[in-house]
Write a structure and sequence with these properties.
This protein is an alpha/beta fold. The protein is built from eleven helices and nine strands. It has a six-stranded parallel beta sheet with strand order 3-2-1-7-8-9, with helices on both faces. Strands 5-4-6 form a three-stranded antiparallel beta sheet, with helices on one face. α7 runs parallel beside α11 (about 235-249). The two termini are about 15 Å apart. The mean pLDDT is about 95. Bound molecules: ligand BJW.
């Protein structure tokens, strides 16, 4: 099996570079959180321009707060818990330690709840708020409103969800770039590959010419042809299987 032997080769090099796992909203779908671009996804119900740009927040902050308040309440609902895909990635990190870096585009905290620690939230975190006045970033589990005062500077109107909107720079790009440049295996899980810079990671890794690249997604993504190997199916089934294969290779 060509894929398995490529993984063995990547395993041999894992001490030299590690594994980068990019995750998107598809990994959290079976935990009860919506994806963005599927027919039942968030962007089928809400316009990006109304809720996910700095201009939208400047124009109508109450509308943007309403959108994220609803998603924060959904995330904190008792039935939303990590699924076997999140748990499998945490198991991989438990076995191989910091060689495994999860870079998630998701703003939910399901990777943390599953046990992942070596983790980058490149599009931010729903359970944090940031003050545009003083810059403080604080843990936040309640609704936000335009009138909510900043817990540090007390200014009102400045608190926003600590997330990355279109036109804003994703977080920790330097750390991500270094990991992509060094890794021996790049795995993309549950993302359509339509939002940059994350959509460009596979090409970046391939340009290095060393790492094996694998897509794990419900269906072929926009970038499928860029991956050396692809496994399609629901994340809760294919990710644990893939991790088992890595750990037993
Ligand atoms: C399953 C499954 C199951 C379902 N199991 N799988 C023109 C060209 C190129 C770039 C640009 C351009 N014009 C503008 C840009 C830049 C722009 C961009 O990419 N736009 C594109 C739309 C073209 N990007 C930005 O503005 C970014 N910033 C930036 O570029 O800064 C400049 C920069 C310069 C140089 C270096 C670095 C940076 C910022 C992007 C911010 C994205 N923000 C959002 C909202 C965040 C907060 C929130 O959650 O509300 O992030 S948008 C949304 O999309 C969210 C997601 O993280 C992101 C990706 O979506 P994802 O996760 O892939 O979801 P889907 O729905 O698209 O896909 C789900 C997949 O799962 C599907 O394939 C399903 O099949 C699959 N699936 N069920 C497994 N059970």
């Amino acid at each position: 099996m060509a894929g398995a032997s490529a993984i063995l080769a990547a395993m041999a090099g894992r001490f030299a570079g590690g594994i980068v796992v990019l995750t998107g909203s598809g990994i959290s779908k079976e935990s009860g959180l919506a994806t963005f671009r599927d027919p039942d996804g968030i962007w089928a119900r809400v316009r990006i321009e109304d809720v996910a740009t700095p201009e939208a927040f400047a124009r109508d902050p109450a509308r943007v707060h309403e959108f994220y308040n609803l998603r924060r309440r959904q995330l904190l609902a008792p039935e939303v818990v990590p699924n076997p895909a999140h748990l499998a990635l945490a198991r991989l990190e438990a076995a191989w330690g910091e060689e495994v870096l999860v870079v998630t585009q998701n703003i939910d905290d399901l990777h943390e709840r599953a046990g992942s620690r070596n983790l980058v939230h490149m599009h931010g975190e729903l359970l944090k708020a940031r003050c545009v006045g003083c810059g403080v970033v604080v843990a936040w589990r309640d609704d936000l409103a335009v009138e909510t005062p900043c817990p540090r500077c007390a200014r009102t109107g400045g608190l926003r969800p600590h997330v990355v909107w279109f036109g804003e720079m994703p977080f920790e790009m330097e750390r991500i770039g270094e990991a992509l440049g060094a890794c021996g295996l790049f795995v993309s899980i549950g993302t359509s590959g339509s939002v940059y810079p994350a959509a460009g990671f596979v090409a970046e890794v391939r340009a290095g010419g060393r790492a094996h690249t694998v897509e794990l997604n419900l269906e072929p993504s926009e970038g499928r042809s860029l991956f050396a190997e692809a496994i399609h199916g629901p994340a809760s089934r294919i990710v644990p299987g893939f991790v088992d294969r890595l750990l037993s290779a």
